[in-house]
Amino acid sequence: MMKMFLNPDKPLSTCKEHSCDDCNAKTLIHCHFNGKLLMRFLMIAFPCLLIAGIGIFRFNYLFILPWIIFTLLFFGFIEIRVLCSHCPHYAEPESKTLKCWANYGSPKIWKYRPGPMNIPEKIIFFSGILFIFLYPVVLMAISQQFILLSLLMLFIIIGVSYMYRYMCKKCMNFACPFNCVPQETREIFSEHN
């Protein structure tokens, strides 16, 4: 039976430690993910995507399919190449899919590419995110769905704020443009990885 997440007692394959027991980075960085982190992320992302989808559908139901297809392709395929393949978690050999909180279950079809994102990757990443969230905002504004639009904006603000404060400050993917792990913590993590 395949485990849902990586063994939290076993160091990552990029880590030079033999045990996580005395690691001074494990409380500062999310080296291992769990169902609680996944549920937190889904509780942030799902309402935003649901409200956006409802707004698009109410504008014109024919406009929802391209948005759904692009969103699935972006988060399940494109983002994996331009962002996730830079993460130490992506290097884990025991799974062919991601076992993290943001893209759980997405296939690892590219090689692990340590280091920062390049400029084209950043452009692709930000363009995809902007399209996914601006497309419904524009359609809701055009169709004067101001209550739904306000609700979407509220959930986006709450979600971004929560992600920044509780998830991005502990994320090991330093290549991500949203990563806000303090430099001191990055150095502690890098001593092990």
TrEMBL record:
The chain crosses the membrane at residues 37-57, 63-84, 123-140, 146-164. Keywords: Membrane, Transmembrane, Transmembrane helix. This is Uncharacterized protein. The lineage of its organism: Bacteria, Bacillati, Bacillota, Clostridia, Eubacteriales.
